[in-house]
Fold each of these.
Amino acid sequence: MTVHAVLPGPVDTDMIRGWDIPKASPESVARAIFDGVDNGEDEIFPDPLSAEMAESRRRGAAKALERENAALLHAVSVGA
């Protein structure tokens, strides 16, 4: 089993249709999500705005802590 986090920016849906900001189409976001799953990405940034933030998230403290915890979990499960 795999888990994927999808972290979209604004998507052109009824919820934010009236906002005057750049929005990705639902179709392009859906395609990018499926592409991310097919490529084995654990975090999927499916539109231009979220893609701009992807690298800073990958280098950030929260992601580093996530990697450390995953390594500990792997060490425990291998040693069990």
Amino acid sequence: MRFGLALPQYGFSLPGGQEIGFGVTADWARRAERLGFDSVWLSDHFFYSFGRYGADPAPIAAIEPMTALAGIAAVTTRVRLGTLVLCAPFRHPALLAKMAATIDRISGGRLDLGLGAGWLQDEFDAFGFPFGTVAERFETLEGTLAALSALQSGQPATYEGSTVTLREAVLLPAPVHGRVPVLVGGKGGPRLLQLAARYADGWNAVWRIDADDYANRVTAAREACDTVGRDPATFRFSVGLYSLVGTDEREARSLFERGRAAFPGGAMDAETWASWSVDTLSGSPDQVIERVRQLEALGVEEIVVSPWVLPFAVHEPAVVDVLAERVIAPLRMSH
């Protein structure tokens, strides 16, 4: 099992309302590398909003992921760098492929490119991108995936889609290993899994995972691979999970209570420790290791942890240390 860290990148990402900036994000990337994490990840928003939680919908500061990853590539040496996930409608696939190849070169071949359809309508409207229907955003996602696949084929790419056109386009210089691995992010409905099976290296789901539901979606993903004539063994499964891990369960419960009390809009008021711990990576180190092994048995190869009750936030840095020392290190030794 590989472990990634969701890096702080938003105005809510740090305790006490501390201002976010590239320096803090890069420091956390270097810290993750020192602690033994395998990868670090950023998400993709022009701004974030707590409106979905019934709280103040005002825009919240966000660091752009691709430019930030270029900087992180230059100050790290080992960890892989990833997007979880880029919003496909925000960048033309040709420019995206060029950006990805350049970051991959800067990093020495360490980039993973996660892509999704987008969901926050406020940012689409504010910055002039048509939000459209779910079907229309999926059409854009498919065009982006198809164009990236063509551009990373090693041959001049010609592609005619409803949203993208390429004419003998060549990606030079190419990524270090010929292509950048591509993941599709989303809940795992039939159309998304079909796109992932056809065009991507794998599929990622976040941030709370019910084991039984996930097992069914893994089966569906493997069936999608069969449908498109792909060996299911070549398809990667990764998940992102909220993680509140303490030195013991009592400490983990205390973390949960602080997170619940701080959650915007009171949206976690009805949440209990039992409901939270069943579908996140939370508890004592032994409990978390047991959950990791359950996910591993389902075929999950990588877990990206978000060590708070909100994504891409680090409010209690000790959680990251406990994860590294009491979960990741013992699991490495056991293998």
Amino acid sequence: MPTTVLDIEQHLLLLELEAPFNKRDVQLARRRMAKRWHPDVAPSGRQYEHERHLKAINEAADQLERLAEGSRGGKVSENAVRVSAAAARREREEAGRRAYEAEQRARAHASDRAKNDPFGSRVPDHSVVHRYARCISYPEWGVGTVAGIYFSSDPTARGEEVQQWARVRFSHGVRTVPAGSMRFVDFSKPDPAEERVERFMLAAQRAMAEGEYELAAKRLVYARDAEPRNVAVLRLMTLAFWQAGNLDAAARSVRDWARVDGNRPAPHRFAARIYEDIGAIDLAEEAAERAVKRGPSDAGAWERLGRLRLHLMDREGALHALERAFALGASDDLRDLIAKALAIEPSVARAT
């Protein structure tokens, strides 16, 4: 059994750290990678991959911390990393040589079997190598180029399964990605629509969590193009455009949403608010009226309808809506609105 060589360079790649480094640098890198690959931030079904990758990161950080503590001055130099990398490369070359010899023996055995037992197996030996991949956990990184595939060094000696991870070059930089979180890209055929929707929805939600609503809206446009009648996409796109201040685009989005999900009051409530922000009070009043018809128990919707009718000088309509809101237990501000409606002269009020 060959001796295991500590590959410092591989640990540095896992932590996205460069030499020289000390214990504090390792701790900061561990914290940064833990925020990125914690299972709590993993998409649905990928928690196990994040957990395994984070475990590998922690083990690498523990070894690097111990190495830094035992080094002169508490710092590991670039020369030490180069020496370790050279030793690890020699060890990998030796392991590759042994694997090659084993493969040649297997090929000779297969050739002998094909000659003497041609119908023993009809499955051809082949392999497909992919170069481009996406990270399922962070789809907003886009398509990256796989720069290298790495495996954990001899984990079978401790009874553990082999871990595989890759260094992928994205447009914003190189990232260390666990193999289970990668999805290889075949440019000969388009991605399924549901995969594109999931990818752009996740990217948009992260952008909105960071306050980048304009960027989220752009990403949601791609999700909408993949599935034009997806209610979740249309709802989130309406909110993103509205928060970004693009009221015209928000109005178009909410109309698309209402065409797909018009039997529910939510799109009409959003439409009333957006039209009110635009200044189209008549359109806002019509949308608010549709909202109360589909959700008659919503006190806030009745209050909004009454306030909009008050702007349009519709005395009777405003009083009717505000009284319904008051009966459903709306806020105390209704008293002032009802007083304003009663102050409108019937002759001045708009004919209903």
